[in-house]
Structure formats: structure tokens, C-alpha cells
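[job 4471] stage=fold_predict status=RUNNING
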Amino acid sequence: MSEGSLEAPTRHTIPWQEAEFTDPEKIDAELRRVFDVCHGCRRCFNLCDSFPRLFDLIDESESGELDTVASKDFKPAIDACTLCDMCFMTKCPYVPPHEFNIDFPHLMLRYRAMEFGEGKVSFAHRQMTKTDRNGKLATPVAGLANWVIKRGNGLTRPLMEATTGIHEDAHLPPFTNKPFQKRTASLVQGKNARKVVLYATCFVNHNNPQIGEAAQAILAKNGVETKVVYPSCCGMPQLEQGDIAQVAKNAERVSSELVNWIDKGFDVVALVPSCALMLKFEWPLILPNNKNVIRLSETTYDVAEYVVDIAKKEGLVEGLSKLDGSVSLHMACHARAQNMGQKAAEMLRLIPDVKVDVVDRCSGHGGSWGIMNANFETAIKIGRPAARKALETNAKYIVSECPLAREHIIQGIEKIGDPSKVSITEVAQHPIQILAQAYGIK
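[job 4471] inference complete, writing C-alpha cells
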């Protein structure tokens, strides 16, 4: 048996269409095998709440070992996994190609796929994942929708908590009254050989189009021809719930359209790291024989990754000015999981004399996990070190590649007890907006 962590981790394809994948007995056997290894290792104890829950469960059992733990008691530890991939990417010494062959996040995904198939995912949870539908419904009545979901609305938020399970104090992203797709219908002509399809993502399209506008303006300024394309959501919300079949449908639809643009010489740039992760890595594991999916994965970039690539190969055009303050940059888990380095930090450091403090800790948000009543206080607790570090930098701008993580950090700062530090950080959510500001782009 070889020592762990001596080789780069590799991931197996996800056999979600095989009957054994959702077989309860086989899943339980694999859970027990993996949990026994995790209990003896414990390197992941400080990553998220899943591992402390698991270790406490076993430690407090009759024998202090897994043999006296009932399988029905595994669920709290499984539910606490946010599929951030940090245990697989940074901590676990037993990931493939090690003989123990442990992929904790994908095992949790397998369990959730079983639950989804058994109809155990609630109606409210399933409706939350329909981001495109929800965005389309909210757009014509954005003002009313934003009033309903606003924190502090004592009329609607307690009712939402009672009916959906969303914690009444959890930040929910406001909707735009004009989606990003409809703001930029025509091509922005460029002057160099690069051409880019901006994959809008459901968040940028329906919630914060300013992120997309900043990215498009920066690329146009640097001579890159761009086109905004958004066939549908990447499926990350469905993946969190175990609805792999829906993820596969989204992957087939999006990849078939985006490949047409790749054929025309366009690169694909995703504006949110979770979506880039799906296109690059998760989709090929779900549909390994789909040629469009594989080709798209090889031609997709995270937006910060792409800007840094331009800077290294052609150089950015002049015009970047100094900022009026420093930046606290949170590195999103799904940016780290792309294994591309700290591209957002590299991008921001292209700004003259900028001070960038990197917050390399979990925000605690975890997608839809952190907004639920059962998890919100835990999510705030997990994100407290990131919030405290961001606060200690005394930065004017607090941003994250994951806009939802950024807002969760802001909430964490509020709960630390210094709201005065929050009021000056609401200019931008994403680092691409900081670069646009340095370019003087409004």
C-alpha cells in the first residue's frame, strides 16, 4: 500500500445511470467503509460541519467505533456536506489513485441521488433549484419580489421561513428587472484574434448583470469580440439536491449550443466559479461519452483566469488607475476546486499599487445549504474566520468570485459587531467589477 497524497488526485466518472449507484445497501456499505477511514484520519476536521458531526457521532457511540452507529444516524453528517470539494482537493490523503479510493463529496452526491430518486427531497427544495424559472417569473415584478425577499421584512420573511425553510435573516440575492442577456443582444466587435462567448450563468443573468457588463466591457477594451449566450443553468443547484438526470439534460442543452460558437473560433468564459467548475469538471464526469461536453470542458475558462491569460500573452491595454482603497478578496471554494491557482488575486494585482489581502477560508455559505433554517447559524459559525479576516484587513472593498459567499461574509462581519465596516464595501461583489472600476468603466 502506497503513502497518500504523493500523486495528483484523479476523479472517476459518475455511474449515475447504473442501478447499483442508488442501491441503498451498496451505498450504506460504501458509507461505512469511507466513514471508518475518515474517523481514523480526521485531517478534514476543520473544513466544514460534516466531519465534526461524523466524528462526534462515532465517538459518542457505545463502542466509540462505527460498528455501534446506526445507519439512520448518518444523515446529519451527509446533509452538512456542501459539495465544495475542498476535502478531495486539499486534505484527503486517500483520494484516487490511492488504494482506499475515497471521494467523499461524490459519495455524498450518490446518497443524495438515492434520496432524490426515493422522493425524499422536499417540494420547497426542488422549487428553489429552478433558478431560470424563478428568475423569469421575478423579472417583470422585480421591485415587488425584492421587497418580499429583503432581509428585515417582518411581514414576508417569517412567512417564507415557515413555508420554505429559508432562514428569515439569510441574504437572498435581489432580482434584476432586465436580464444580462437582454442588455447585450449584439456582438461587441474586437480588434484582436480572441473571441469569447460569455456564459451568463443564472446568477449574473437574473440577479447581478453588472458582473457580466463589467466583464464584457473589460474584454471589449482589450480588443476581444464577445457574445452573451445563456441556454440554461449549469445545474449546480440540481446537483446539490442529487438530481443528476436534470444536470445531464442541462449539460446536453448548453454544450450543444456553445459548441456551435466554439466551431466559430470562440472561447467560452463562465462568469461564476461554480458554473465554470460544472462545465470544466463535473459535466464530463456525468456525461463522459458526450463529445460536445468534452469539447466544451476543454475550451472553458473562469473569467479571472481568462483575463490573466490575456495579460500574460498579449498584455492588457493601458488605462488601469490606482484604487482609492485596498481589496479583501475571498477565494471561493469552487474557484479553488478548478485547480488553476489564485487567478482572481493575480488579476487584481495587475492594478497599479493595489493592496490585495486574500481570504483563503470557507465563507460557510455552501450554496442553498447555508440559507436554510436548519443550517444558517452553523453557516455563520463556519464562515466566522473568513469574516473576521476580511474585517481585520480594513479593506474598502470586500469581494469574492462567488457573489453569494461575499454577501454571507458581509453578514458574518455584521454579526461580529462592526457594521460600520460594511457600509463602505457595497460597491462591488466580484473582483471583475474592481478591475472595471480601475479602468474607469461605469
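[job 4471] summary: The mean pLDDT is 92.
[job 4471] exit 0
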